[in-house]
Structure formats: structure tokens, C-alpha cells
Amino acid sequence: MERSLFAKKNAATLVRRLTIDDVENALRVRKIPVVHGFGVSKPDRFKFLQYQNLYFLEQEDVDLGRILEDSEQLFLPKKVPLRPSFGIHWLAINGVQPTIAENPHLLEGQGTAKEKVKSDPQNGIAKHVLTKELQIYYEKVVLAVVEAALGNSAAAESVYASLAVDPGLQQLMPYLAKFIFDQVNKSLSNLALLKSVMRLTRCILINPNLDKELYLHEMMPPIMTCIVHRRLCTSPFQDHWSLRDAAATLIPIVYGQYGDTYQNIKPRVQNTLRDALMRKDRPLTTQYGAIVGIAAMGPLTVQAVLLPVMAKLLRRYSKAMLRSRSILERREAQHCVGALQSAFGSYLRACASPELSKAILLEEHAEMARAVALAAGEATIPWQPHDAASSSHLFLFV
User: Choosing a second label site near 310 at 20 to 30 A (CA), which of 13, 109, 113, 390?
Assistant: First the structure.
């Protein structure tokens, strides 16, 4: 009787324990190769739930109070749980990922098909593969720029409108910036294509959903090239003046967005335009671009850069218009005179503005402005303010 009770007790105990022999026997029954090299000194204990006919692994309860008391011995912080904290580190600088502990190493082949990441072993620049949708969109942008250059501007309007407002184009920014840079450098004699590229550049710059900060070094040189380059078309009688005007309007957009972040943008552009204007070996086309570029930067820049030399330039260009034997030179000088008159007129209009008159300090520059008005002649009359409330200094210019 005692032996039978002992046998039943042992059988019940064996049922509750799963051993390695049980796994090996099950594998042999299924004709599966036996797994070797695994074993434990103490078999796991299982509990049996009769009402569900289920076995589950018996686990030891952990006393959190004891863990908190023994935190120093367990090398845990004294205050458990920890409060959430935040840290800041550079994920990438100018497209290059710094090798710090917080940044994971980008290995080739990681990620999904849409977010595949590769690393360049030479310069460490992280590259990404565009999705199929963005590839199609980029091809449409390139086609639209070419179509607009060929005269089919109606087909490109929808693409330009999308570029100006679409928020999902950030991954295309490196490709668009490189496209602008390459096309301007390769197509300096294709006036229609340059105009189309500048239209593309404007749409990108005015899009509030795109971050252009990391690509300014690729976008600013093409803009400046389209302003002050010597020749932007095959024939000098083509209308390259409108291209220079359109490119000049992009300068205030750039430093209006990033002038506070990069305070050297405006001085560098201003110095470049001043150098293009003041050097006598520069052609009149380059000087015209410098004039419209300076005028686009605002009345204070006109006052600082153009106003001291405007009278001298007006006399020089007027002399070229009257005495030059070249029809082309007379025409270019005429455009330069018109650009100077327009810049001076916008300056006069700013002087009459209550918001800008105090910043312009008209009294200190009245003598130079009077000399410019004398050199410009009657051309400045339409720009003169006729409001009696305006400053009396303005009426002394003519």
C-alpha cells in the first residue's frame, strides 16, 4: 500500500517537471535530429491548472521593497524609478554624421527598401535612396524646367505651383540644389533654361515647408552668377536683363529667411556686388546686375553702396550713351542708367515713408542725394513725393 502511494506521488511529481529527456524523446518520435549541447542543472518547475488543463512556468516573486533597500549593493540609482530626462547631440553636420557614441554606425543594407541607408567610407556622408514616388516627381520637375525653357510654360505651371507649397519634398532638396547648380554652370549661354532654373529656385525658396539652410552653399552661387555674369545668352541683344532682375529679387528672400542665423550672408553678397560695380574692367552687363542686386537689398544698402558713387556713374553712363560708336554699348549704358534711376527712385520713396525715414538719416546724406538728382535730371520727378507732409529735404533734389 505504501509503495503504491509512493509511486503515485513520484508520478505526479514527474508530470509537473519538463526535462531534457522529454524534449529529446519528443524529437525522436517526430524523427527530428536531436539537439545536443543544452542542459540545466535544475529542471524548470511547472504548475498545472486543472480547470483549464494548462501548465505554466512557476516564477519567483520579486520584492521591490528589498531591491530599493539594497540599491547600493545592486549598483542601482538611489531614486527608483528615474525621472525622464533629455539629451542633445548632433545627428549630422552639413550632411556628415559625427562619430560620437550617441550616433549609430550606418551600415550598408540596413533599413527597409524605402529607407535604405548607405555610408560613404571616404567622406562619411550619409546617402539615402529616394522612394519611387519621389523619383517620379523629380523626373517631372526636370521635365517641367526643360519644357518651360522650350516655350511650353503652361505644362510647367502645375509643377512650379506644387514646388512652392508642397510639404513632402524635403528629401528632394539635395537633388534639386545640385540640379540648379549644375544647370547654371553648364548652360550659361541658354537664356531660356536659365530663366526656368531661376523660376525653380524661387519656388523652392518661397516654400515654407522646406528647410534650405544646408543647401544655401549650392543655391547662392547660381543666383549670383545669373546676376553679374558677363554673358548669359548667345546674342548680346537678347533680353538677359529680365533674368538679372529676376535673380536679384531672390537675394532679399534668402537673407530674409536666414539673415539672422547667418549674419555674414548680406555683407558677403554686398561686397560681391560692390566689387562687380566699382571695378572698371567689368563689362556694363555685370555692372547692371550689380546695380539691380544692390537695389533689391533695400534703401539702406542703396544709401551705403550706391549713393556715394551714383552721380559719378550716371555721368559715365550718359557719356557712353552719347559718344560711343557701338550700338550695343549705348544700349547697355542706357540700361545701366535706367537701373540707377530706378534705384534712386526707390530710395526717394523710402525717404518719404514714415517707417523708414528715421533709419535712413536723410539729413546726413542730403548733399549726395542732391548731386544724384542733378545728374539724373528730370527722370527722378515721378519718384518725388508730392505730399506736403513729406520732409522738405526731398524737394531740394530737383
Answer: 390
